[in-house]
Task: inverse folding
């Protein structure tokens, strides 16, 4: 039996309170409603932390599910309780914004395996009273989506007007449209792909190895043992962060500019601005993210491969779909390059689905989906407006 | 006063003998011949380990200096004493090969800062009797080249028929042509650039942070303390190795193929072949390379920026040069993309130098310069043959 409550802000970081008592809505599912996992295992009880914005209309037809990326969370359009920073998509979601909360009811939940209140490796294992650590079963993108469907059910929403998200969020969008086509009126996968590439798996593996190489990781039991693999997690974030930007973007932003000095220091301190920028990215990340969650969520992305369940033919996954798709990519994104989006578009065309596609010119790389990109905003606004006209006249 | 000797093979790894008693020729420079460094410091005594192939002709005009890349060494065309594997450029250098040792006298020296017998951080600091560690002054690419010039002087060679190399080796080629234009008859910079880009500095910084995050690094004093930052160095190598390949190449080689199983294992072992491949790259690298050398040599690459000494105008660096250049790049190289080579070519054209340029089609990324690339082989052979005709008729 699902139950919802709003807890007080924990006001603390990922591994310091959010795991069990998140500062957002929480939906709890008991032992009678296990989350069935692709691995064959299941999770029960299950907790899903989520945020909502706007008002659900009378016939519950105006809900938009926003899916977050690897290190995102449910705080889409309101201050993040851990960092104190604005929500991660406030440029897109809010009153009068492209996803207009004056019109739509927006839901975003922390993914299962995450560290912001949904059940994850930092959550308490009821069997031991200790954090799960690696005793939590592996999670996949379809598992995340199955959990979201349980939440959407519990909110009494039958069909989502839209499922939207970028990067790993876009993987969830695609998975929603394949697993629950009748529940997705429109789908907006951004800067994503139908599977994780070999190169992307390789980068994730480097990050995981950096975490697991840190002796403070303690085989995943660092919370119980009072340590934290901060250095390993920071290195993982630094490596990943490079992949979120582009060569051109880094060059424009930093070039070879030095850090507060006129010539190189002939040492191993951060000489170049790009070095201190990266170090800052690494250090600030460990304040807000749980290392084991990083292992779980990267692994979920690695495992993602829609076509694999359809005999290797992606088009078969979308066969008969009546969902309206809008696919967006960015020219300088080399993590999910445009060819990945085009693969989705071709498959949708081959399956006879309704699809529009835009490749947006930018030098900001993969991260562009989180930044001030007017063409993206216009694309989202236009797509939702015309879909709303089709839906409601 | 320089002296040369041939020591017995040490038969051991980088940090296990090669540092002080390398298994190749060694040129020693005494306190009266210090290596002056860009930092203002100097190194004396200095040791340079090198290999030669072929025979120096009577007028000492047929010498080709081959410059190695970041983790390369002097063992170009003969078995590597540490790994037991063939030399790193046996496809290019040897009897009848594109750099034909029946015709040319090939010299290759381990860079200063390296770990295969030239003075580096693993060498014994004469002031303490302990390994230098971070007490060795920082090294730059011009410093490496200055040391090579001391070796070439000691070998009695006035002008090199060619200086050739890829990646960091190519940086040395460019630096030779700028610092000693009259001593370089032809120059063959491959898969390189006139400066290290912001993105490349970023990747190097991740590697250094991974090493320095390893508690067994001990602030650089691991040799004296009997430890080894193996995990950190392996992570650094893994991250770097991805940048040596291409997305297409990784896809062709591994795709999403699983490792010895039919379905994913739902765990953190190496599920995908690309993961076990990367882990192997990391683990085998630590057997042959010194972690502090990795810090020093990556830093040298980061600092490289020829134009900086010429008011930001690269063409001024080559003004008046009579060297014949042949510049080569690879289509899928994203570490030193073709645009970096074109920048060199444009500057050479602007300075009135003689230059030919080829961009070679391949999906093997940056590593292509080390692999079986027939167009590269034909390019090198043709360039050297026509230069030899111009030189000797």
Result:
């Amino acid at each position: 039996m699902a139950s919802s409550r709003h807890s007080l802000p924990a006001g603390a970081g990922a591994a310091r309170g959010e795991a069990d008592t998140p500062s957002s809505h929480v939906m709890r599912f008991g032992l009678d409603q296990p989350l069935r996992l692709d691995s064959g295992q299941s999770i029960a009880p299950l907790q899903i932390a989520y945020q909502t914005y706007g008002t659900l209309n009378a016939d519950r037809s105006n809900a938009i599910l926003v899916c977050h990326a690897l290190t995102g969370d449910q705080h889409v359009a309101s201050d993040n309780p851990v960092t104190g920073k604005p929500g991660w998509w406030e440029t897109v979601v809010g009153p009068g914004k492209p996803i207009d909360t004056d019109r739509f009811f927006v839901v975003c939940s922390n993914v299962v395996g995450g560290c912001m209140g949904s059940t994850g490796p930092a959550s308490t294992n009821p069997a031991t009273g200790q954090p799960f650590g690696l005793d939590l079963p592996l999670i996949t993108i379809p598992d995340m989506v199955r959990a979201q469907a349980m939440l959407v059910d519990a909110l009494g929403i039958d069909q989502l007007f839209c499922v939207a998200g970028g990067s790993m969020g876009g993987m969830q969008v695609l998975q929603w449209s394949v697993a629950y086509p009748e529940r997705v009126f429109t789908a907006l996968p951004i800067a994503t792909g139908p599977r994780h590439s070999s190169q992307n798996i390789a980068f994730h593996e480097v990050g995981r190895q950096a975490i697991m190489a840190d002796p403070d990781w303690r085989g995943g039991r660092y919370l119980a043992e009072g340590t934290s693999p901060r250095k390993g997690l920071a290195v993982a974030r630094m490596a990943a962060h490079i992949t979120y930007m582009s060569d051109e973007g880094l060059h424009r932003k930093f070039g070879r500019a030095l850090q507060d000095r006129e010539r190189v220091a002939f040492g191993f301190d951060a000489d170049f601005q790009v070095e201190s920028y990266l170090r800052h990215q690494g250090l600030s990340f460990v304040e807000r993210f749980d290392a084991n969650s990083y292992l779980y969520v990267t692994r979920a992305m690695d495992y993602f491969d829609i076509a694999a369940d359809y005999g290797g033919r992606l088009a078969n996954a979308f066969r008969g779909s009546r969902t309206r798709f809008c696919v967006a990519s960015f020219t300088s994104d080399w993590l999910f390059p445009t060819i990945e989006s085009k693969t989705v578009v071709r498959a949708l065309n081959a399956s006879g689905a309704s699809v529009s596609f835009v490749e947006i010119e930018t030098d900001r790389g993969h991260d562009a989906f989180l930044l001030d990109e007017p063409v993206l905003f216009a694309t989202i606004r236009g797509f939702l407006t015309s879909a709303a006209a089709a839906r409601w006249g």
